[in-house]
Amino acid sequence: MTAYPTRAPRWKRVLDSDRSYRLLTFAVFAAVWEVYGTFWGGLLIPTFTETAAAFADLLRTAAFWDALWVSNQALLLGFACAVAVGVPLGVLLGRFRLLERLTDVYLNILLVTPMAAIIPLLIMSVGFGLLSRVILVALFAVVMVVVNVRTGVRQVDPGLIQMARSFGASERQLWRDVLIPGALPAIMTGIRLGLGRAVTGMVIVELLMVSLALGGLILQFRGTFNAAGLYAVIAAVLIESLLLIALAQRLERLIAPWASTHQQGKARR
Amino acid sequence: MIEISGLRKTFTGQDGAPVQALGGVDLTVRDDEFLTVLGPSGCGKTTMLKMIAGLQTWDAGEITVGGRPVRGPGPDRSMVFQNFALLPWATVLDNVAFGLRLKGVGKAERTERARDLIAKVGLAGFESKRPGELSGGMQQRVGIARALAVEPQVLLMDEPFGAVDEQTRRLLQEELLAIWEANRLTVVFITHSMEEAVLLGDRVVLMSARPGQIAEIVDVPLDRPRSSDVGGLERSREYVEITAHLWDRLRDMHEEHRAAPSEQAVR
């Protein structure tokens, strides 16, 4: 910053921020959508303004908030389970080579299997209740968490482990002072990516398994050819996931600030 | 005092063939001596240092520090690493206090001692910075302060200035001399620089490779304190002669290896 003889004027800096570029692309997107919807949309593609109006209406209905609440119960519980199971599991796999060898195949299977395929299986064994939705959300999220945490633990600099040993660190101290903090950035990344998958799981389970809550609303609007309403619900899901991801990112920066200071402090201007 | 006798170690190489890293090393390091160890890469000097630190096992022989046999890391020894090995998430203060924290020293006391040492290595004012915000030279000052904070009897330094630029390296050498001259302790200092070995050491241990063995131990009869006039010292006749002698020996070692590659295979 000090390298510049004079600072750019305030309006210029505001205009040059990431946010204004994001707003710009959004405005272009909305305009194209509006034009397309007006001239070629027909019955099935609403315009941007119609969707926005439907979204505003949606926010005023009790049904929407109920749906949001019910959906998020599964999301919250399932994601919490995924983190509670995924983080310790990933840590163990990262630290003990034998465990990793034993489980690697199954993790890869989980990573590439289309989770939607096991929905019928879940329904047959657990039924239609909250439990099966929670399990599916957890299954969607847990693999991302495990894989990232495992990588994080394994990537902890062996030089640091040796250093701690040279100062007489016990196994417990090694975990507390070196391995866990060293893996923290990757753990947070795993949690953020897992969250994204959890949202996917939440919607898919409601679309394919139990027509209920947000997924149920989507199906209902589709059934009545209420295109604007359908788009509005989808927009609501998008907005929720964006908010959640932003929150996770902020948390990541708060908990592991050293991991991002390099790029942020130095690369940016 | 460090006593090393009959120290041997054979590793299994990548092709499965055994590689003799240390082939029977005998060495005595006197109390409060600054010993530098010089040798071509692969001569086992770092392996030997790690064994003294208790980080590496050996096949035969014995190491004692202050009369006690080495069975692992201990509070009487601390190490300074070539790549600094600082915790990137911890502040300078917490990095310097790390060894004290592991030993269970209370927060107030370890903070005070860490602050003391940070000032000693010239980093006062940087206590709350993280390693990523420091230059390489400053990072190694943190590494030195961390090693000294636990008040060891022996300081083990593994090419500590190998990863910093030339000017910084010279400054760090002078600073290390000044610190050591003010507060003596036993130092084993690994380096691949002849100049550094002569400038810092009371004696220079010259090692040869395959198998790692001590080829020669050279006394460095230069006056102390040396930190006040490093430039004059480097122009002195003894300094020039000893460095020239070390270079002759190192060059011979290279030529021997080139002349007789088959001999290693037989051994």
UniProtKB/TrEMBL annotation, chain A:
<feature type="transmembrane region" description="Helical">
    <location>
        <begin position="134"/>
        <end position="153"/>
    </location>
</feature>
<dbReference type="GO" id="GO:0055085">
    <property type="term" value="P:transmembrane transport"/>
</dbReference>
<dbReference type="Pfam" id="PF00528">
    <property type="entry name" value="BPD_transp_1"/>
</dbReference>
<comment type="similarity">
    <text>Belongs to the binding-protein-dependent transport system permease family.</text>
</comment>
<feature type="transmembrane region" description="Helical">
    <location>
        <begin position="228"/>
        <end position="248"/>
    </location>
</feature>
<dbReference type="InterPro" id="IPR035906">
    <property type="entry name" value="MetI-like_sf"/>
</dbReference>
<keyword id="KW-0472">Membrane</keyword>
<keyword id="KW-0813">Transport</keyword>
<feature type="transmembrane region" description="Helical">
    <location>
        <begin position="105"/>
        <end position="128"/>
    </location>
</feature>
<keyword id="KW-0812">Transmembrane</keyword>
<dbReference type="InterPro" id="IPR000515">
    <property type="entry name" value="MetI-like"/>
</dbReference>
<feature type="transmembrane region" description="Helical">
    <location>
        <begin position="74"/>
        <end position="93"/>
    </location>
</feature>
<feature type="domain" description="ABC transmembrane type-1">
    <location>
        <begin position="68"/>
        <end position="249"/>
    </location>
</feature>
<feature type="transmembrane region" description="Helical">
    <location>
        <begin position="201"/>
        <end position="221"/>
    </location>
</feature>
<protein>
    <submittedName>
        <fullName>ABC transporter permease</fullName>
    </submittedName>
</protein>
<feature type="transmembrane region" description="Helical">
    <location>
        <begin position="21"/>
        <end position="39"/>
    </location>
</feature>
<keyword id="KW-1133">Transmembrane helix</keyword>
<dbReference type="GO" id="GO:0005886">
    <property type="term" value="C:plasma membrane"/>
</dbReference>
<keyword id="KW-1003">Cell membrane</keyword>
From TrEMBL, chain B:
<protein>
    <submittedName>
        <fullName>ABC transporter ATP-binding protein</fullName>
    </submittedName>
</protein>
<dbReference type="InterPro" id="IPR003439">
    <property type="entry name" value="ABC_transporter-like_ATP-bd"/>
</dbReference>
<dbReference type="InterPro" id="IPR003593">
    <property type="entry name" value="AAA+_ATPase"/>
</dbReference>
<dbReference type="Pfam" id="PF00005">
    <property type="entry name" value="ABC_tran"/>
</dbReference>
<dbReference type="InterPro" id="IPR017871">
    <property type="entry name" value="ABC_transporter-like_CS"/>
</dbReference>
<keyword id="KW-0067">ATP-binding</keyword>
<dbReference type="GO" id="GO:0016887">
    <property type="term" value="F:ATP hydrolysis activity"/>
</dbReference>
<dbReference type="InterPro" id="IPR027417">
    <property type="entry name" value="P-loop_NTPase"/>
</dbReference>
<keyword id="KW-0813">Transport</keyword>
<dbReference type="InterPro" id="IPR050166">
    <property type="entry name" value="ABC_transporter_ATP-bind"/>
</dbReference>
<keyword id="KW-0547">Nucleotide-binding</keyword>
<dbReference type="GO" id="GO:0005524">
    <property type="term" value="F:ATP binding"/>
</dbReference>
<feature type="domain" description="ABC transporter">
    <location>
        <begin position="2"/>
        <end position="234"/>
    </location>
</feature>
